Amino acid sequence: MADRTKAVILIGDGLGDRPVAELDGRTPLEAADTPTLDSIAADGECGQMDPIGPGVRAGSDTAHLAILGYDPYRVYTGRGPFEALGIGMEVEHGDVCFRCNFATLEGELKLEGEEFSGAKIADRRAGRIASGTAELAAAVNGMVIEDVTCLVKESVEHRAALILRGPGLGPKVSDVDPHEEGVAPHAARGEDEPSAKAARILNQFVLRSWEKLKDHPVNREREQEGKPPANVVMPRGAGLAPHLTPFAEKYGIAGACVVETGLIAGIGRYLAMTVPEVPGATGGMDTDELALARKIVEMLEGHDFVLCNLKAPDLGGHDGKAQQKMAAAQKLDALARYVLDHAPGDLHLAVTADHSTPISFGDHTGDTVPLAIHGPNVRPDGVQAFSERAVVGGGLVRVRGRDLMPILTNLMGVQEKFGA
Ligand SMILES: [Zn+2]
C-alpha cells in the first residue's frame, strides 16, 4: 500500500460569482490575477461543486457541515445551536438553543395563563445597543428554572444566544419575539411534550429576564442618556443541538480548522477538531492571509487534515464590490502559494468555496462553485485555470459538498474499503 498523504481544504467564503458588467462579463475570480490557483487547476483534477445540492442557496454553516461530510438536512434543526457555537458558547448534545435580541419593553410584563400581557415591544433592537450587553447577559446567565439551566451570552450589537440545558427538552418551540413592534411578546408554544416543556421554561425565562434587567444599572444609565433600555430578552429560532460523530471518529484521522469566523470555529469545536487561535486573522479585508497559511502548515505537523476558511471573498460579494472581491481572490492565491511551498510531505490540496455570493445579487445563491484538487494521486484533466467556468468539463465533473471528504480520503489512502 502506498504511503498515506495529508490533505487541506481551502475554502474561499462566498468565492463563486456570476458575470459582472464592470468586469466585461467576467466573474471576479476570472478577472483576478491568481497564478497559483490556476496552476493548482492545471496540475490537478477539477470540476463544479454544489455545496449542498443543485440550486440550493447554502449558508456558510450548512455548507461547511456538508463539505465536512455531515448531512445538513439531518443535523440542522435551526440556527440557534450554530449561533451559540458561533459566539463561543460550549454547546452540548440535547441543548435547545435560540437566537435572541435584547429589546425594549414598555409597561409591566405579566405572564397570565399562557399569554404575555401588560407590556409591548417598543424597540426590537433596543436602539441597536452597542455596549453594556455583556453585563446584561451576565445578569440573566445561569438562571435555573425547574431542572433547566438557562445560559446566555451576548453577540454583536443587540444580539445574543440562549441555551436551555436540562432533561427532556424539545426544539419545536415557537418564537417569543413577535417580529414587530407595538405588540406584546408572543408566549412560546411547543408542538409536542418535550417542546411544551421547553416553551414553558422559555416563557418563564423571558419574564424573569425583564425582572432582572428593568432596573439594571446599564439600563438606568441608558434611560438617563435618553436611550431605549435593553430590558428584555426576546428569543427566536429554536434548534436542538444535534448529535454529530466527532470528525476523528468518522474518518479515523486527526483534523484541524484554521478559520476566522466564530460560526465555522464553532462547527469545528463541535466536531472535536483542533481550532487554534490565529493572531492576525481578522475575518476582514485587512486579514493576514499568510498568518492563516502559516497556521495551516503548523497544524499539518500533528494532523492529517486541515480545513481553512478565508472570509474575505464573501464581503465583497455582500457589498457588491467587484474590485474588492478580486483582491480577496488574490489573498486566497497567496495563501495557497504559501501552503504549497511549505507543507511538510505529500499533500492533497482542494480549493473551493462554500457558496457563491455574486456581486450582482449581494447575497448567497445556489450556483455551483469551482473545485480543484492538487496532489500526488490525482489524475490531471484538461482544465487550465481556476474559475467558475474554466473547471466545467474537468475530471470531477459535478459533485456535491458531501462528496468531497470521500474523494479526499480516497486520494489520501486513509479510507476503509466498502465490501470485500
Ligand atoms: Zn455570506
Provide a short characterization of the protein structure.
The chain contains 14 helices and 13 strands. The protein folds into two domains: 6-76 and 243-412, Alkaline Phosphatase, subunit A (3-Layer(aba) Sandwich), CATH 3.40.720; 84-240, no CATH class.
Question: In words, what does this structure look like?
Answer:
With 420 residues, the chain is α/β, with parallel strands linked by helices. The chain folds into two domains: 6-76 and 243-412, Alkaline Phosphatase, subunit A; 84-240, no CATH class. Helices cover 32% and strands 22% of the residues. It is built from 14 helices and 13 strands. It has helices at residues 28-31, 35-43, 60-67, 72-75, 80-86, 133-140, 193-213, 217-224, 247-251, 262-270, 289-302, 312-319, 322-342, 404-412; strands at residues 6-12, 45-50, 96-112, 115-123, 143-145, 148-154, 159-165, 232-240, 255-258, 305-310, 347-353, 369-374, 397-400. A seven-stranded mixed sheet has the order 9-10-1-11-12-2-13, sandwiched between helices. Strands 3, 4, 5, 6, 7 and 8 form a six-stranded antiparallel sheet that branches. Residues 14, 60, 314, 318, 357, 364 line the site of zinc ion. Zinc ion (ZN) binds next to helix 12.
What share of the residues does DSSP label as strand, in percent?
15-25%
Look at the structure and name the CATH superfamily of the largest domain. Alkaline Phosphatase, subunit A
Q: Looking across the biggest beta sheet, what order are the strands in?
A: 9-10-1-11-12-2-13
- Distinct bound molecules: zinc ion
| CATH fold description of the largest domain | Alkaline Phosphatase, subunit A
The overall average pLDDT, rounded, is: 95
Q: Would you state the CATH class of the largest domain?
A: Alpha Beta
Termini separation (Å)? Answer: 16 Å
Count of spatially separate domains: 2
